[in-house]
Amino acid sequence: MKVLFIGGTGIISSACTEAAIAKGMEVFHLNRGTTNKENVPKEVVTIHADIRNGDEAETKLKGHYFDAVVDFIAFEPHHIVQDIQLFRDCTAQFVFISSASAYQKPPEKLPITERTPLWNPYWDYSQKKILCEKLLQSEGEKSGFPYTIVRPSHTYNQKKVPAIGGYTVLHRMLKGQPVVLHGDGTSVWTLTYHRDFAVGLVGLLGNNAAIHQDFHITSDEWLTWNGIYNILASELGVEPKTVHIPSEIIALYDKEMGANLLGDKSHSMIFDNSKIKKFVPEFCAKTPFSSGAAEVVQWFRENTLFKGPDAAVENWMNRLIEDWQGFKSFRKH
After folding, report:
1. What is d(CA 27, CA 47) in angstroms, rounded to the nearest whole number?
2. What's the total number of domains in the chain?
3. CATH number of the domain that 98 lies in?
4. Which terminus of the chain has a lower count of CB atoms within 10 Å, N or C?
5. Which range of residues forms the domain containing residue 145?
6. Assessment of whether the complete model's pTM goes beyond 0.90
7. Is residue 279 part of a domain?
8. Tens-digit pLDDT profile for residues 114-126
9. Nearest to 156 by CA among 80, 94, 223, 96
């Protein structure tokens, strides 16, 4: 099977590349070639082109036919319009990586299924993903364009700390400094290890039954945000000093982070993965966050610890904590 990954070197797509190669697929990447080649498996054939430059991409893709194309970096409706034009006649399956943040916020009921409405009034990112999906569905109805929609939810690897402030949070925990956590930390969240996700995604490639279908691919492990921070702190060998601040207040200090929280992470989100398991029986998210956190912290110690925290994040977090504690003190008096 010949597959094309648009992107191919990100957190999700790199794991999917590994999984596709392991299944004996012929894997192509289409990207600008700016990522260190040492991070790309030798089996991959890289087509150097900017997917946003339609003429360049069309020239480089001429003569190729793919059993499946996966676009990991389509975020705007016009990206999908371009994809339809590029791949209409040169693939048997086009897979769009959408986002589980597109599901109804706040959700009326849990768990989330693929029948849950798509509606997010808080986050522009999610709204654009919804529009992308609608374009594909419309084209599928009109011309039969062979799309499949996949919605990840907070997929991570060792290089991505699932915390507000990223690796700076681990720096602060080690130094005994307070860290910000949205809400009261009791909302339930789903974290998915990137290699677990890849099993589901790659299992859909070349699967004719998946054409004109949508799937989310997530873990079945549910953790509170307090639990997530406690696991990270435990792996570091410290006790976390968590400052709980409402998402609406955080949004006043960082608009984009606020949209991310109000449009996704501040809500309890658990998922029914029955559909992906039906279509891809080998899919099983077997990596608990306790194991994933060990990889995150090991990477942090070996690659990031010596670099120190991000100064901008430090300043933002210190100011937010100081203002919030001052506000609470004022209210007491």
Report:
1. 11
2. 2
3. 3.40.50.720
4. C
5. 2-156+192-217
6. yes
7. no
8. 999 999 999 999 9
9. 223
